[in-house]
Amino acid sequence: MCGIVAYVGPKDAAPILLEGLQRLEYRGYDSAGLAVVNSRSLKTRKVKGRVADLAAAVPAKFKGGIGIGHTRWATHGAPSDVNAHPHLDQEQRIAVVHNGIIENADELRRRLEGDGVKFESETDSEVLSHLIGRMVKETDSLREAVLRALKSVVGTYGIAVVDAQRPGEIVVARNGSPIVLGLGEKEMFAASDVAALIRYTRQVVHLEDGELAVIKADGFNTFTSDARETAKEPFTVDWDAGHYDNGGYEHYLLKEISEQPDTVARTLRGRIDDRFHIAHLGGLNMDARETRSFRRVKIIGCGSAYYSGQIGAQLIEELARIPADAEPASEFRYRSPVVEPDTLYVAISQSGETYDTLAAVQELKRKGGRVLGIVNTVGSAIARETDGGIYLHAGPEVSVASTKAFTSTAVAFALLALHLGRVRDLSPADGRRICDGLRRLPEQIKEILTLEDQIRELAKKYADAPGMMFVGRVRGYPVAREGAQKLKEISYVHAEAYPASELKHGPLALISPELPTVAVVPDDELLDKNLTTLGEIRARHGRILMVGHRTSEAADDCIVVPRNEVELDPILLTIPLQLFAYHAAVALGRDVDRPRNLAKSVTVE
Ligand code: G6P
């Protein structure tokens, strides 16, 4: 979603804010702006476009040692210079940057306009600057003004506020949209994501929902919404600035796809026990008795996280023989779900901040559900809210479309399924088979990456198609869904995924030479059935690109990947589809890392 950066200290704020915004651009990138305080007045620059456009618009001498910046992903009001943040009050004393959505913005706006306030923008966020601007005159504390203003606000926010009359402090607050404080040497930072801080400090403090902080160059204080001070322990981030570089690759996406042999090895490290053929998952915080007590597993997540959850559900049913299914977190939280005491809930999120997933976790907790998190970002909101979980250790994922986090999540599910299986009926022999299979994954991913030239040519061949169908059966179906998701996200080619068996119940009507099919065809017990489906497509003159473990005359083109254990094959079958989507997007000249209309971390509903 949108990105926020704030700085207070002895240096000039603008270059630090611009650098931070660049690091956050993957969260939102349709407009950007910043404000600094100098000689008790505000200087602002706001532009439609990228952070680079903002940097070009900021003069070299843009002095001021305190400031806030924002990169936007529009929700209310089209991307434009005026709708870009920061927003100011009428006296141009207060500047605010905001992530999230103010739900009662229309009502507040009408009320303020009735009192003679003139609005500059169409955004919901501007009400905040006017509200705080009014309150600051009634109290001599910016903290108090922000607290009072927020009392009349319904919605979600992460905000940073400066007051030109108080050039030594910034007030930040969180409710639903992340805010992290960064602790420097006689300087302080705040941001919506550690990515913006990592060049300057690795000591961070996460705000909780409902918390507010006053940051000054020499320290910070945090408060609840009723102004009671809270105690916070700083925490050291184990990612460094190098993790956020593109490593010489043309795109972050290609870098992240290529890192997968390492990232999968990191997800597995120290977690396979060869003595009992079990998984060591210390973060679950569950003893064997509790682990045995679950009769169902429910997995929730959004986007690719949800599709990796479908792979996870399949793994858990197969290896642990517990009924398991995955559901989009956004649907789950709105349908008043029945929460059962003997169900294990698993929330998946790369960022750990996706609002719908977080809200679903909070709903589960409120109803007494046992929730684990499979999360990449250590210390993120979902990691903090869940009862235990598995960290992916995949390193930061910068490109909007998820690749390495998807794969590591599927690997984490394989470990969880092994763990749940081995306290039940999964035999030691099968446990060993899965442990050995898991250990082979990094090398096999390396092998698949060597197919890049072939996949690039195939992507060029198929990229002109107006749309593509993706099909898979049982283990192959979530792979097909994720393959279609990758292609549509980054190449904008229409892509639909269907269970192969469902094709004849409707979508077969679409098949023609203009709509090629990507068929996920592992060498499992369903191979013959899948080959029959390919025959049905062929009979309608559909072109077929098959991804599997062998070549077949039933397909026009084949990508052959190494075979692992049938249960683990979906993890490997996804990798060529990532490369296929990547090269299709490149062939079509798309902005691969920052696809239109999307954001990396969706911290609004
Ligand atoms: C956004 C991104 C997707 C991602 C989803 C879930 O929609 O565009 O690529 O899969 O959020 O993100 P999470 O951080 O919760 O895994």
UniProtKB/TrEMBL annotation:
SUPFAM superfamilies tied to this protein: N-terminal nucleophile aminohydrolases (Ntn hydrolases), SIS domain
Coiled-coil segments on the chain, per record: none
Glutamine amidotransferase type-2 domain: residues covered: 2-218
GO molecular function, one term: transaminase activity
Active site per UniProt: 2, 600
HAMAP family linked to this entry: GlmS
Entry protein name: Glutamine--fructose-6-phosphate aminotransferase [isomerizing]
Organism lineage string: Bacteria, Bacillati, Actinomycetota, Actinomycetes, Streptosporangiales
Gene responsible for this protein: glmS
